[in-house]
Structures are given as structure tokens and as C-alpha cells.
Amino acid sequence: MKKVVLTLITVAMAAGSTFAQADKALVEAQKKSIVEAVKKTDEAVKKAPTKPRLWLERAVAYFDLASFPDSTLANTDLDASFKALDYIAEAVKLDTKEGKKGSIAKDAEKLLDGREKAYGALMNMGVIKYQGKDYTSSFRYMSKASELAAKDTISAMYTGVVAQLCQKDAEARSAYEKYMNIGGKDVAIIYGLAQIYKAAKEEDKAIALIDKGIEIYPTSKDLRNEKFNMLIAFNRIDQAIGQLKETIAKDPKDVMNLFNLGLLYENKINTLKEEVNKIADASNKVADARRKIASHKDKAEVYIDELKRTKAKLKTVKPNQKPVIQSQINKLEASIAKDNEELKALEGEKAEAEKAVGDEAANKAKIAELTGKIDALKQETPTFYERALAVDPAYYDALYQMGAFYFNEGAEIKRVVNAMDMDTYKKEGKAVEEKLAAKYQQAIPYFERALKVKKDEDLKEILKQIYRDLKIDKQVD
Fold first, then answer.
1. Interatomic CA distance for residues 174 and 159, integer angstroms
2. Enclosing domain of residue 198
3. Same domain, 224 and 152
4. What is the DSSP string of 422-447?
5. Are the C-beta atoms of residues 404 and 455 closer than 8 Å to each other?
6. HSE (CB half, 13 Å, CA atoms) of 469?
7. Is 186 within 8 Å of 157 (Cβ atoms)?
8. Predicted structure pTM score
9. Which InterPro entries does this UniProt record tie to the protein (predicted)?
10. Looking at CB atoms within 10 Å, which of 141, 204, 213, 233 has the fewest?
11. For 109-150, how does the pLDDT look when each residue is reduced to its tens digit (9 = 90+)?
12. In angstroms, rounded to a whole number, what is the distance separating the alpha carbons of residues 440 and 406?
């Protein structure tokens, strides 16, 4: 889980400031007073354990101990705030008769409300432990404070932070969700919780949370970029294209957005090509299985014809030659039997291939449809790079990608040429190579301009290859 990095601000800031500026003697007097109050209330409860007011006073003394900004005092009893919670419970129990709470019980429960004594004590200890990098203990205090202050965003937020720091991932998620549900708006938490959802592959939740962040911070480019990156990571290319088009409509001269839109179109093209190849591969498996079966049957026919001739020969040979002929017959019959088994296996492969490919006519129609979409996208893709270059003619990435777009189209044509047999090449090779040359010629000016902007060694090698293929006598500097 990706951690959210925040600076923890003590909730006892005002108290801490006063404490820092206070006279040292006064501070020592305050510490002494708190220690004496703890001791005094402990003794009072021992003497009269059934009096609710004494339990309440004891809880207040322990909260004061846990709330004191000086950690040398607060750390003398790490459980002080939790003991105080137990003492409050005891005061409420003793002052409740027949389900009706008395004034002391009500006063005790007020200490638990909102940011009253219990909250302040727990958060103070949580901050002290956080600053000491004891994140497990910090989580213990923070989470209890958040539990008591159900509508408090600060304790919910920092509960999530320290939970992550001590690798309590489920607790961190729960705390951040609470924070958002009660009105939290910190952008770091929005981003952090979205990353938690992303890691858990909860795509809709992650995107919905980023959308909520964009509603809160409509001018945040970081959040919009994060949504864009998420859509790419989730392979929601059409959504990413839609978002980027909206962004470009608001700022049509942002070269990076124009460039990214071109890349998305190329991504979409590649996705559609993969779909075409998947269908074509399935069809090819059927065709391959049929060729294997036809070839096998031809071979089997040879064996069958040979068997017929050998059996006929058996009738005409001398008795002493019959064992040799019979041996030949036995071998041929064994070969035919083996071929029949192999043929059954091939028939099974063909049946599986035909089942996988489905309706061949529908597949042809689907390939035609996808090819049409690819062609349309190819027509539009270069326009985004050109628009970026119209704004910044020296934009290297757009120059390189324009060259690569045409070069890659040429590479596809080159693969077709390389796959041709000699007869096909004699008939069609020249025309196809002319198409290849045309694509390379389109790529050259963009690559050459890109190389002037940045001397990239890989780009130099690409240009050298193009020059060689086109037999252009030109040096690449």
C-alpha cells in the first residue's frame, strides 16, 4: 500500500505554545500538581470505592497527566488516558440507578464528547508517540480518539496516517474512508485512499474518489493527471481519450495533452489490432488443422494403395517368399492403424479449433469492422502530433512519434514482404516495396528534425537503417 506522507501537527498546539513560553518554575509546579492530584485521587478511591465523584475526579487527574505537553511527565504512565476512560465508566455505573443517570454520570460522559478531556489526552499521547516514531502506540491513542470524536476529521486523518506507518492497511483504509465520509477534504488523503483502492483493483471506487477530489478542487491538474493515469492503468482507453479531449477543448495549445492524445489513439489502434490478430489466429488454427488432415489423408492413401498391391503380390509369389511379403503386409497394416489414430487426434484438434473460432462469416465481418476502425484512427492520429508541433515546432517527443508512426507502418509492410515466397514476390513484391518506401519517406523529415533537437543514439540508428533500405547515400551526424 502506498503511504501518505503528511506532517503531523499536534492538536495541543495552543497548549504546547503556552508550555514552551511558560516559566520553568511554573511548569515544574504544574507537573507537581498533576502528580499530587493523581496520587490523591488514587488514595481517595481506595478509601471510598463506591463514591462516583471520586472516580470522576480520578479520571480528570489521569486525563491531565496524559494531556500534559511535556513528554517526560506524560510518558510516566502510558496507559493514563485509557485508565481514565475506565474510571469514567465506573463513575457512570455507580451514578446510574434503575437506568437513570445522575448529575455525576452526566458530567463524566461530557468528558468524552467531541474534543473534551478524553480526546485531548489521547491525541496528545498519539502525537508524542508519533514524534518518537512509535507508530504502533500512536495508532492506539489516535484510533481511540477518533472513535470518541465520531465527527472529527483530524483524528480520523491521523489515525489513517499512523495506521499505514505501522502497516495496518485495513485500519488505514477504514480511517481514511471515515475521514472522507465526515467531510474531509485534504488532497493527500484523497490521493492516498485512491491508491489503496487502486492497489486492491477496486477501479470504480478509485476513479469515483478522484472525481470527488476534482469536484472539491476543480483547478487541480494533479488530480486530473492522476485520473488520466488511472484510466490508462485500468485500460479504460476510451474514457481516457474522452477526458483528454475535454481538457484540450479548454486549453487547445497544451502540447503535452495533444501529444498524449496521439499516444492514446495509437494505444487504441494496437488494442484493435490485437483483437484482429486474436480472431485471425483462431481462424488460422482451423485452416492449419484442415491442412494437416488433408496431408495425413494423402499419406494414408499411399499406404493403403501399397497394402493393396502387396496383398495382390502375396497371391502370386512362391510359398517360400510368402513370409517376407506377409511381414511387409503386417508393417503396412500397423502403419495404417497408427495413421488412423493420428488422424482421430487431428480431427479432435480441428473440432476444438472450429469450436473456438465460432462462426467464420461473423469473424470475417468482425475483422472488417475492426479494420475500418483502425483505418479511421490512423487517419486521425497524426493530426494530434501535428497540432502539438504547430504550437512548438521543436517539440522532440511529437517529432519522434510522428516519425515512428510512419516508420512502424513501414515495418508492417516490410514484414509482409519478408513473408512472401519467391513466386509471390515476383508478382507483388515491387508494388509492396514502393508502399514501404513511401512510408519511410514520410518518416524521414520528422526523424531528421527530431535529431537536430536532440542527438539520440537510437534515433541515429533508425535513420541509418532507413537510409540503407532506401539506398540513400547520406551521413547521420
1. 9
2. 185-234
3. no
4. HHHIIIIIHHHHHHHHHHHHHHHHHH
5. no
6. 22
7. yes
8. 0.66
9. CellSynth/LPSAsmb/PSIAsmb (IPR051012), TPR-like_helical_dom_sf (IPR011990), TPR_rpt (IPR019734)
10. 204
11. 999 987 889 999 999 999 999 999 999 999 999 999 999 999
12. 7
